[in-house]
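U., I forgot to send this yesterday:
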Amino acid sequence: MLVATMISAVAGFMVFKHKLSNDEKIIELPEPRKIGKVSVEEAIARRSRRSYSDRPLSSSDISQLCWAAQGITDPIRKFRSAPSAGALYPLELFLVIGNAEIEAGVYQYIPFDHSLMLIKKGDYREELYKAALRQEAVREGAIDIVITAIYERTTRKYGERGIRYVHMEAGHVAQNIYLQAEALGLGTVSIGAFYDDMVREVLSLPKHYAPLYIMPIGYRRQ
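Result:
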């Protein structure tokens, strides 16, 4: 069952990659750190932040955020950093990068080799800001992480109840991003108010990708 799940997840990625590979570029991220300087208790004491400095986000910090959200924690069984019903992993992570060491563009995170695949070049934070009802944090963040779901990966096993499982998983991922951001001295906020079709257009996503969260991230203002 696990092997079939892994093959299904890879196949789903390959279909999307085939459709969006005109400007394809793969960026290998730095190896994520497994030991930090901030305790779990300190990270839990975090709060949402909607205002950020102009300091560019480092590739190392982007690496840590992606790993915390969907990174591989078991290289043999390919388990990820957030729990998933049936290990079906319906979530796909996208980054709208605008102010970072990595070139501005829209990227998809590839957990299997901890890399980013470029979908299209350019700073699309302004477009995402408009899709998110003009919430300033989306435009002001150095990057925006967009958590999306492919419900069919879970519902084909669990039926309609699988929708609930997908939403639970998205909550786990968002909390991991919150905790990792706090540990890195970054700020973030979870945003659920946006026009789905507009977000899909910004990310060049097929219709069956459902955007669930936008999480702008940047260094905290002093």
